[in-house]
């Protein structure tokens, strides 16, 4: 994850539930991301986890005592509320949610919440019957209407043995939400369509042609666009990746399906980013039965697929289209030809022959080339960082 969390003051409230053990991992992730973390444990939380565990992970004293003597006239709950860039309550019980919704401030955590002006993110975790109880649901709705940020719990087998909704969301997903909340929304009001991953072209019911795209580049662009406030649609070939939080994903298989899926969103979008690696050819006569092995060579005729970027480039209007170029030779020359042929605003050239660049890597090494042929070279970066520079470049080009 790219780091907008570094240097931020996160106040974390933990309340009494078994998911406290999972929330310790969240503290660890926040610390690794460079945040300063102050943890408040309620009395009930201390039945599940000790202050010692928490302060060892947070590397700062844990707050448990509302009435401990103070050495200056700076009551701790008020100073914590003031310094927080974000308050996260994980796990949040039905009890604490009920208290917040009804204005009760009777312990350290709830007084901090009452005094806070920062955003508050609540990650509930409880038994499924408690979660679906209409009184609790009313409380949640009230908090939502008061602009509290909520992360819905997951569905699964709960610690009490019941099955259903109520498991604390995974710490990695909570981190993603925190990153979203701490990101400046400079793409607010924009609609961004991103394509990602490979397409597959069937040969017969069990065989297909595809390529080595993992989807990571496109998914990181979608994640970054969403974090920066854009309505984000991700048109994805087959990958092993989870859709980024808040991104609308449309799954497709073939290049023609990818084109048709974009068509649905193109008219209303501001920006189309083509990070996918669509198959350039498809099989002319797909067999509906598995092709049997014989002693002879097998010839398969491939026909050209539509060039999706070119198709939309031709009817671009005042939309912005960013393409990618995956090259193995004559890099700059080939990339420049693609800008012109596909009517792109700029192209992101990745030298897929380099280690740590292109297909399936977590990093990429790119050069951005615009319509005037101006080049900007970037060093090896995480794909999330590459996503950031692409969207920064988009905003810069818009200002020209
Ligand atoms: O998915 P990852 O494992 O993270 O890898 C990322 C990536 C290497 C796939 C990505 O960074 C990338 O370079 N994507 C483009 C791959 C590709 O198809 O390149 P190309 O040079 O063949 O195509 C140029 C552009 O035309 C691309 O924007 C491509 O999406 C688009 N195209 C290609 C073929 C086609 N039929 N229709 C298209 O729109």
> Can you list the ligands bound to this structure?
ligand PMT
CATH superfamily of the largest domain: CoaB-like
Q: Got a strand count?
A: 21
Q: So what's the overall shape?
A: elongated
CATH architecture of the largest domain: 3-Layer(aba) Sandwich
Strand order of the largest sheet: 12-11-8-13-16-17-19-20
The CA-CA distance between the termini, in Å, is: 30 Å
Percent of residues in helical segments? 25-40%
CATH fold name of the largest domain: Rossmann fold
Largest sheet: 8 strands, mixed
Class by helix and strand content? alpha/beta
Describe this structure in words.
It is a single chain. The protein folds into 2 domains: 9-181, Rossmann fold (3-Layer(aba) Sandwich), CATH 3.40.50; 191-399, 3-Layer(aba) Sandwich (Rossmann fold), CATH 3.40.50.10300. It contains 13 helices and 21 strands. The chain has helices at residues 20-32, 51-58, 76-83, 94-101, 108-115, 128-132, 134-145, 171-181, 216-227, 255-266, 308-313, 331-342, 383-399; strands spanning 9-14, 36-41, 86-92, 119-124, 149-150, 154-157, 163-167, 191-196, 201-204, 207-209, 231-236, 248-251, 271-274, 281-283, 302-304, 320-327, 346-351, 363-364, 366-370, 375-377, 381-382. An 8-stranded mixed beta sheet has the order 12-11-8-13-16-17-19-20, sandwiched between helices. A 5-stranded parallel beta sheet has the order 2-1-3-4-5, sandwiched between helices. Strand 19 and strand 20 (375-377) form a beta hairpin. The mean pLDDT is 94. Residues 197, 213-217, 255, 274-278, 280, 305, 307-309, 323-326, 338, 350, 352, 358-360 line the site of ligand PMT.
